[in-house]
Amino acid sequence: MQIADRWFERRRLSDAVTLLWEPHVHPFLRCNIWHVRGRDHDLLVDTGLGCASLKDEMQDLIDKPLLCVATHIHYDHVGCLHEFEHRIMHAAEAPRMSDYQEFCWLKADQFPLDYQAAFAEPGFDAYLINAFPHENFDVESYSITSTDPTRVVDEGDVVDLGNRTFEVMHLPGHSPGSMGLWEAASGTLFSGDAIYDGWLLDELADSDIKAYVRTMKRLKTLPVQVVHGGHEPSFGRDRLREIADEYLLKRDA
């Protein structure tokens, strides 16, 4: 397999928001990594697979204390969490991060057959990456580094950047501790995998469809201007309502 020239790409969405992603990761696992500038602190939402150092990639973006939030515990979102000093997770999942025992697979044949059928993508065969981040990378021994969250949050807690405040929204369903960060002043929601414009997974080992239905009904009422999800492109309120309605119709709720 080829060695990637660079593992991360980035795009500046505004003066305050930069999107980073891992282009050599299969779209199914390719997590959106969000960097948000603040006055006193910056915010980092999710950290990708951990195949290469996100902290090294971001050195030119980091000029103040960085608050790193994991929207949930799945491996495509917490791979580099251990690299950062301030690590924030929801109370429902924080203990599981301290001794990481969740599945973390890069080989397609490790997934159930119905998932494998969805992995058909040019350039991806046996693995869910199409390049190695460096010469000594061993895909067979890939794992997530356990780490202790330094702050545990729950519904209604606030992540304060000095000039911007984000309220924690507990959005279970995809996983027990899935959460979003809601900035009411701008109508901005960082939603993790609770909602994004793609295949929403609600039948994983720790998923809860009834909880997901409640989350979707709640999100439909939110006066969002923009949703920055855990995967796929960002979208606005109309598309949020469409995605939520499609899910509720699927689950006959």
What can you tell me about this protein's structure?
The protein has 253 residues and is of the alpha/beta class. It has one domain: 4-Layer Sandwich (Metallo-beta-lactamase, Chain A). Helix content is 18%, strand content 21%. A seven-stranded mixed sheet has the order 1-2-3-4-5-6-7, with no helix packed on it. A five-stranded mixed sheet has the order 8-9-10-11-12, with no helix packed on it. It is globular and about 45 Å long.
Key descriptive features of the protein:
253 residues; alpha/beta; Metallo-beta-lactamase, Chain A; five-stranded mixed β-sheet
Q: Return the CATH architecture.
A: 4-Layer Sandwich
Give the H and E element order.
EEEEHEHEHHEEEEEHEH
Sheet having the most strands: 7 strands, mixed
The total count of helices amounts to: 6
Task: Compose a concise summary of this entry.
The chain is an alpha/beta fold and 253 residues long. 18% of the residues lie in helices and 21% in strands.
Secondary structure elements and their pairing?
Elements lengths: L8 E4 L4 E5 L11 E4 L5 E4 L8 H4 L8 E4 L5 H4 L7 E5 L3 H5 L14 H6 L32 E3 L4 E3 L4 E6 L8 E5 L4 E5 L16 H12 L5 E4 L7 H14 L3
Parallel strand pairs: 4-5, 5-6, 6-7, 11-12
Antiparallel strand pairs: 1-2, 2-3, 3-4, 8-9, 9-10, 10-11
Helix pairs in contact: 5-6
